[in-house]
Amino acid sequence: MVAKKKASRPKRSSRLSSTSKKPSFKQKVMLFLGKLMFAGLVLLSLSLLFMDTHIRKQFEGKRWAVPTKVYARPLELYAGLPLSLDDLKTELRGLGYQFVRQAREPGQAEFSTTKATIKTRGFLFPDGKQPAQTLHLSFVNNNVSSIRNAQGQTLALVRLEPILIGGIYPLNNEDRDLIQLSDAPQGLTDALIAIEDRDFYQHAGISLKGISRAMWVNLRAGQFVQGGSTLTQQLIKNFYLTSERSLARKVMEIPMAMLLELHYSKEAILEAYLNEVYLGQEGSRAIHGFGLASQYYFAQPIEELQLHQVALLAGLVKGPSYYDPRRHPDRAKQRRDLVLKVLYEQGTIDKQHYDHAVAMPIGVVKQASLLKGAYPAYLDLVKRQLRQQYRNDDLSSEGLRVFTALNPIAQHKAETALVSTINKLNSIYGNKVNDLQGSIVVAEPQTGEIISIIGGRNTRYRGFNRALDAVRPIGSLIKPAVYLTALSDNYTLVTELDDSPLKVTMQNGQTWQPDNFDHQSHGLVPLHTALSHSYNLSTARLGMSLGLDRVIDTLRKLGVTRPIDPYPSLLLGAQGMSLVEVATMYQTIAANGFQMPLRAIRMVTDSAGNELSRYPFQLKQTIDANSIHLLHYALQETARMGTARSIYQNLPVDINVAGKTGTSNDQRDSWFAGFSGNRLAVTWLGRDDNSPLPFTGSGGALKAWINYMASEPLESFNSAAPDGIEYHWVNSISGLLSNSNCPDAIHIPFIIGTQPTESDRCAGNTNSDPVSRSLDWIKQWF
Asked: Three-state DSSP class for 436?
């Protein structure tokens, strides 16, 4: 048997032939750099994609938080309107009109002694656009006698554009008036491009020439001092980045600017720049965009600016603070003239236009805020009413338009009256009235619209609003509520009241012992006399007999909603109220017992003029018309023969007004509330530290009220007698029925069935003509 041989195994090679060579160091480095570049490209692509998405999203979406704009009422012009030329000028100054010898352009007005020509700007009202037009107005005795247009046609009714009085701003306090590129004067865009980016229409977002120049300047300075930015880069910086001067931010600008130019036209970029650029500062409010800057510096719309004005604005871009024309007028003029020189050298303007523009003064308005912010107390009320219905974010970012009832002419007159009265009292009383403050609220008595609010002596102070937030004892202003309670309970105007001393012991053991202002009691007095002469003792006795709860119920019917403590001192005005609350109470009285919420806002629209909400006239009758008519009689008597009789030293005697003086305990507050047919005003004077005053309501607040009302074209207050009222002649001393020809006879209203039943001895004598006697009695008032 043959044995099998073992197969032989091949010998293992010490080195495998298939093994490749190791990469060299250089190859490793190149491989690493290749991967790094790939990763970098991926990262750069992602970054650019992110940038591109971010840029497009913000540029095409809501670019800015646009503040709410608040407007005054538009002045309605018609034949027969009581309006003086001076009042018309006040309105037009608020609108930023230029007064010229011959009005040629919108926003201009010319005047003679009895005529005015106005070139209006037009305005987008909620009910439609009113175009710009020419108005020729004629005046006779402080009344508009006729209105004609440029073609000589008579116009029945015309509205001027409303004054922009303020806004509600976003948290960053940026404010701007958005404009379209077509709104901007050609001179503005020419000046801007000439001085900031002359190659704007040639480059693709960046200027290599500008960057090279900036690099050389920075190298020589040894620090980052110049950026060489195009307008597009400036827009990127303001719109997307920060104003920090750093190389990192500069590097970010370049691709973002190129991406912006890739997607959007030069016109779209320029329009965004016109609205975004920072051009000044008013306190905490940042002025952005040429639309707002035009109003801020010149009080004119952007489209009305002339060459020297747009050159100044274009020059401000380089440094709004450094070239501030109010603080540094010489610098500002040099910068403006440089812009004009560049325009001339580039051939954009000719020598004649250049010489004319350079010769012009800088011409900025003195007051930076003009009328924007001029009504802080009124704007405060508007904001409070808006926040009952709108969110703060919407108010500060959606560009809402709020149309209010503010009457700038009435506001100007009220401010003048308050300040002049306080200055006069300062000259009379000296140190005794240091730090004297005051406040006024004015309303339309038949509509409840508040047309003027002054929150303090410094009428533009934006802090403490005394008209809304100063809760002060109202003194005798509360007395009409006491007497109205009585008149609703079968009391008459001739009911005798006891004006003898009174002492009330309260539940806690303390006593309340009021006194009359003259420290005398007057025995038995007719009810109308007790009110018109503001007797405290008879009022307190009357109120205690009626019951405090019933008086409080009357206050509720008059519109007072705050908690009221049922203490006897309430009857003489220890209760604190704000001016607006007092105005609400007297508004109900003036409106014949109809309670209507006082309102400042008429309508709110979105930025396009579409109505969002309306604040219509609302009313409900809460006081019987017969009782309120009797109260009207007594309050008119107060103005004719009572504590407010000084009114007719200044007002025409044929204008009926009604009202009540008020003085709080220790003369710490001076009040007056009164009304004519077309104006209701509440005035208050006092000190914030609550220290006593050297005058009463008639010696202080009444004077401010008179000064204001005497400046207005007043309508007489006529209280028509309701069906339930009859007038009778009665003896003013005995209260018995009398006759028109009898001594001491007065013609006085009664609710039917409540008149006296007994007559005095003279009542049967009818020798005199009753009509003549009635006229004689009325003349006693006049």
From this structure: strand
Q: Do 71 and 404 form a contact (C-beta atoms < 8 A)?
A: yes
Name the least confident of 92-101, 435-444, 489-498, 518-527. 92-101
Residue 613 annotated among the catalytic residues of the structure: no
List 396, 397, 476, 698, catalytic entry: 476
Residue 543 is predicted with a pLDDT of 97
Check 91, 161, 174, 196 and give the catalytic one.
196
**What is d(CA 149, CA 580) in angstroms, rounded to the nearest whole number?**
41
3-state SS, residue 754: coil
- The Cα-based distances of 559 to 566, 597, 623 in angstroms read 17, 8, 11
Angle at CA 651, nearest 5°, toward 777 and 577?
100
What is the structure's pLDDT at 681?
98
Q: Does an H or E element contain 167, and which?
A: strand 164-168
DSSP state of 398: B
* Contact by Cβ (8 Å): 453, 446: no
Residue with tokens 């705050």: 562
User: Cα–Cα–Cα angle for 642, 648, 653, nearest 5°?
Assistant: 115
Type of residue at 391:
R
pLDDT digits (tens, 9 = 90+) for 126-160: 888 888 899 999 999 999 999 999 999 999 999 99
Confidence of residue 398 (pLDDT cuts 50, 70, 90): confident
735 close to 756: Cβ distance less than 8 angstroms: yes
- CB contact set of 273 (below 8 Å; sequence gap of 6+): 192, 231, 234, 235
Q: What is the pLDDT of residues 602-636, one digit of tens each?
A: 999 988 888 898 888 788 999 999 999 999 999 99
pLDDT in tens, 232-278: 888 877 776 555 555 555 666 777 777 777 778 889 888 888 988 99
What residue spans of 264-306 are helical by DSSP H?
Answer: 266-276, 290-298
Check: CB of residue 501 under 8 Å from CB of residue 535: no
526 vs 536: CA distance, rounded Å: 14
Give the distance from CA 318 to its chain's centroid.
33
Q: Fill in the DSSP letter of residue 640.
A: H
Phi and psi torsions of 269, nearest 5°: -65, -45
What angle in degrees, to the nearest 10, is found between the helix axes of 329-345 and 307-316? 110
> How far apart are alpha carbons 121 and 130 in whole angstroms?
9
Query: Phi, psi (5° rounding) for residue 434?
Result: -60, 140
**For the CA atoms of 727, 728, 732, 736, what is the dihedral angle to 10 degrees?**
-140
Please tell me the distance from the alpha carbon of residue 729 to that of residue 745, in angstroms, as a whole number: 6
Ramachandran sector of residue 502 (left: φ over 0; alpha: ψ -120 to 50; beta: rest): beta
Residues linked to residue 71 through DSSP beta bridges, in sequence order: 164, 403
d(CA 39, CA 161): 61
Residue 612 CB-density burial (10 A; 0-12 exposed, 13-18 middle, 19+ buried): middle
- Asked about 476 being catalytic, the answer comes back as yes
Is it the case that residue 556 has pLDDT exceeding 80? yes
Q: What is the pLDDT of residues 409-422, one digit of tens each?
A: 999 999 999 999 99
Tracing tokens 């603070």 back to the chain, one arrives at 321
Distances from the Cα of 437 to the Cαs of 224, 278, 413, 496, 700, in angstroms? 53, 38, 17, 39, 11
End-to-end alpha carbon distance in the chain:
165
Contact between residue 132 and residue 159 where contact means Cβ atoms under 8 Å apart:
no
pLDDT bucket at 3, cuts 50 / 70 / 90: very low
The per-residue pLDDT for range 381-391, each reduced to its tens digit, is 999 999 888 88
Helices (H), 317-447: 329-345, 351-359, 376-386, 392-397, 408-429
Q: What pLDDT score was predicted for residue 224?
A: 44
**Cβ atoms of 106 and 121 closer than 8 Å:** yes
Q: What is the CA radius of gyration of the chain?
A: 38
